[in-house]
Amino acid sequence: MPDKKKIDGLYIQLYSIHGLIRGKDLELGRDADTGGQTKYVLELAKALSEDKRVGRVELVTRQIKDKNVSEDYSLPEEKINDKLGILRIRAGGGKYIRKELLWNYLEEFVDKSIKYIKSIGRLPDVIHSHYADAGYVCSELTNFFGIPFIHTGHSLGRAKLRRLLSEGVEMEDIEKRYKITHRINVEEEVIYYADLIVTSTFQEIEEQYGEYKNTSREKFKVIPPGVDIEKFYPYNEEKPFDDETRKIIQVISEKLHRFFMDIDKPIILTLCRPDKRKNISGLITTYGEDKELQRKANLAIFAGIRHDIQTMPDNEREVLTEILLLMDKYNLYGKMAIPKRHDTQFEVPELYRIAAETGGVFVNAALTEPFGLTLIEAAASGVPVVATDDGGPRDILSNCKNGVLVDVTDYRNISKALNKILDNPQLWAKFSEAGMKNVKKYYTWEAHTKNYLNEIIRVLGGETYKEDSFARVGKKFLDMKKLIVADIDHTLIGDNVSLYEFNDIISSIDSEIGFAVATGRTVDSALNVLKEQNIHLPIVIISSVGSEIYYNYKGELIYSKGWDAHIKHQWDKNKIIELLSQFDFLNYQEESAQRKFKISYYTYDIPKNIERIKQVLIENKVKANVIFSHGQFLDILPYRASKGKAIRYLSYRWNIPYENILVAGDSGNDEEMLKGELLGVVVGNYSQELDSLRGSKRVYFSRRNYAGGIIDGIDYYRFLKNGKEENLE
Q1: Could you give phi then psi for residue 455, rounded to 5 degrees?
Q2: Whole-angstrom distance between the N-terminal and C-terminal Cα of the chain?
Q3: What is the pLDDT of residue 254?
């Protein structure tokens, strides 16, 4: 991919997390995550990349390495054209995971997105999230970097919850499957942080987003998506057929011939994924109950891609099973087609045109429809439509005037509308012509892109308030190449003269070198002592022995949710407290010393007691980090947490090499951060717990005490000098 630092024009990132997206041959309808949103995002990306104002577009998604899906989804990067590519980030392992189960892995996705942004050395001009999970990722990125943030919801949790409850689904079951409360809470935050929310219809704003407390009308802009009029051209437009097109038409005809006894009848067509909300059963019931409709037309249902129905997710399996049972109930063999799969890129446009050529009708019978992309595809192809009187179809038919809106909850309404169009050739022609004409007026990607970029330029022009937020911390890390990390007690503080000297050094270093502290203190205690000692405030505070990370901007702190998500794995605080209650040599410290991921005790400097604690935890299959320091303090942390691991996490997240991080400490709870590939400095007044580090690679024992030892270590490693550090052995 090209050098992002040299991009001439807007640099836009589009986030669509689920992973089943690629530059060609979209598997639309494969499952619930591969609906219209997937097509919308890809076509938006392509349209933006063709605009001269745009220099680079990246579609950011999850990398999937799973034998059950195409290898295409495992490519780290995929080039689509010179200005557009797909970036795949690994999070939550390699297996495909449906979107409702991705929440636990989004912090990892955020971390790796930050690492990628840091690695290229340039912030995107705009980030645009699609669906709630991507909205969460982008709200974290905008909080950290201040990048202008655009969101498109596609569907919303409150509307989904209301619909499921109305269908009689128990709240407990909804929570279990959809994590709906968490999703709604995330959507509230996304609405709050977004600079612009793009919707397809006004109804989406008023009726769906209107249910959210953070909704502010001025944030919203209706920009309907476009249709690729090169693919979805009118059925009566003369175009020379190449061999590939003839082959596609032949394949479709053969598919339909296998199902239909009378191939010459008009086709009632529907295209959607197998989802209960799409109300496919309602359309089949309409057709099955109306013998006259069966006499005059065939029914073709293209409901995504299916292999073995028994192995499909519950929702899809139930819908497809119901389709086949209804087909059998009404004995629709020879009149109804339900192919197992279709090529979404090439076959779908031809399906619309074939339906139009037979004098057929397209039906969208969904119970709820945020937009209805298939309706504008049908309009562009010249097929009249019968559509649900809900959401997007209202706007589309108001603009295109190409069909009839009906209440789809009563199948007789669908039947009446279909017969009305099929029985009146003049009305059919009127709807067909209006659709082909008006879709070019209202629903082209060229018009969408123009409006979209005008809104982006407006947002960029007014984007100033984030400069006073934590975004400055993120931008500082973007430029940072080195980091100095010091313990506080008995390392940083203890000698005022050397502390003053150290403070002067830190205050004068350039922006490419950062200063952080790693301490056993709580964050509030650490901040207080730093202020009392007039110490230059660090950009990062690693507190509570490495169990918490905070980013600092002028005394305001932002908690690292990424670190929280990383270390909480297999942490059971209550179980550990109960297990250790048997030891009378442990005294539980004050509540103010206890933290979410830290259990603290007073004890004695008796090594066998520490070993007994470790053994009890191991015997009870508890993974934890046991840290003894200063001859009296015992801390129990998650096994992934410690000062050293927190520093290595920062190294990974911000792409700062280990050899560019200098760490200084004095006691046992500093031991792990002093070992390994970091540049370690042990101050002269150290505790005997660190004697075991003598002779270790990259651990320098200074003869100077307290802050003087840190200064000595900085000089020893020539850390503030340009070029490669010396004395690394």
Answers
A1: -70, -40
A2: 37
A3: 79
